[in-house]
């Protein structure tokens, strides 16, 4: 069974539709919401990981509704040579992908939880977080 | 009778490879277990460490003469200006200097990818650095320009001299405004989105000798991976006691150190060029100080744990930039290290700016050096002013 991360952009008229419910019920997809942002104008982005055999038809359904779907192809990596485990990225990472392992206080990176928002890439004082295409 | 030890006695034991050395972290649990009296007599030296961004760092470089001779007037190292108004071929490269064509904050927040701190790291790493210099020419120093390459091994002297390092304690920074701000304390999200702190708490050198009973001019230290010395108090050395409105004390703060050492024996692992988004370039410095267990008082202070050491919570959105005294309360390093603190009744994620794991490595390395007999304690020829000196900060008019 394949799982893929995608970014969904939707406009205000779609926000009131039960898309997640449909994806689960009609397409039998397992959905892991990695990041959700809805602005006051009710437009939003969802970064989700979709797992299931009906991935293709599920995406088709979303596109029909007018949701823009983009694969999450970029990847973030932690350059372990450069990272000094300062911790400066851990409270700004929105998903907990960068976290402190206690009691050693080492900074670890769980790429499964990363939504490639790039906040850490900008904020890391050692430039240890890198984008890979 | 209470234990009293001298530097000479401890150094004798170090030379014989018999000194008992523990890190400040180990001392905390040791004292809880065995009590002050026993630990003071058993332990000779306690090692501390810190590894964080430290502005007010830089290096003096004596570059060597050119042929024909040149009295350098302006100097650039990898396009970063260095200050050469001290002598013909001497220059000081400051950690926060950036190239003249850096976009700074004109594209906000600026990235400050390369600055003086990075030049220092490249030098220490043995990398080739581009040197450019211009001069006006004199009878004895006729040459007017040079562009060449140097490495740390080609130049005569390279001395790390940091006029203000190792802040005794530091603020826990938060942001009460509703927008993200970019500070020397990192990226602070609005509406108390996160809280950043920047000391190694129970491993932090000046929190472990808060009254400067052992640290002074001549104290030998771990500096940038090599050996360095405390040469004076740091600039902005205002030792005092943190207090809340009711006058309750929350420990020492305000002390700083000026430190110096031969850059040629240091390592890029412990001197790292640093880019603070929207703020500037700087240098992350590894620094560790041995504290001799002279008596119970020294030991008691050195044994303070993260739960007994506090940082003041300060708003960097409005109050800090406008120099308005601000205190949103005190929080212990134990709470800060847990990753969550309470500010104004709200739960806020907390994160460090200074690496605890590296601080621990420094304290461990220093401990090994002393155990092996390689590193003797430097007895201060003069202690530094402490809270009793009552030094007050001045600020500029205008
Ligand atoms: S901010 Fe950079 S150097 Fe610091 S822990 Fe995160 S990745 Fe490592
Ligand atoms: S890009 Fe960085 S900050 Fe954003 S989710 Fe991934 S690890 Fe976290």
Automatic annotation (TrEMBL), chain A:
Lineage: superkingdom: Bacteria
4Fe-4S ferredoxin-type domain segment(s): 74-103, 105-133
Transmembrane segments: none
Keywords: 4Fe-4S, Electron transport, Iron, Iron-sulfur, Metal-binding, Repeat, Transport
SMART domains assigned to the protein according to its UniProt record, in alphabetical order: NIL
Listed PROSITE patterns: 4FE4S_FER_1, 4FE4S_FER_2
GO terms assigned for molecular function: 4 iron, 4 sulfur cluster binding; metal ion binding
Pfam families linked: Fer4_10 (PF13237), NIL (PF09383)
InterPro entries per UniProt: 4Fe4S_Fe-S-bd, 4Fe4S_Fe_S_CS, ACT-like_dom_sf, Fe-S_Ferredoxin, NIL_domain
Protein name stated in the entry: Ferredoxin-1
Organism this protein belongs to: Sporotomaculum syntrophicum
TrEMBL record, chain B:
InterPro entries: HcyBio
Domain Homocysteine biosynthesis enzyme sulfur-incorporation per the UniProt entry, residue ranges: 19-377
Lineage, uppermost ranks: Bacteria, Bacillati, Bacillota, Clostridia, Eubacteriales
Domain of life: Bacteria
The name this protein goes by in its record: Homocysteine biosynthesis enzyme sulfur-incorporation domain-containing protein
Native source organism of the sequence: Sporotomaculum syntrophicum
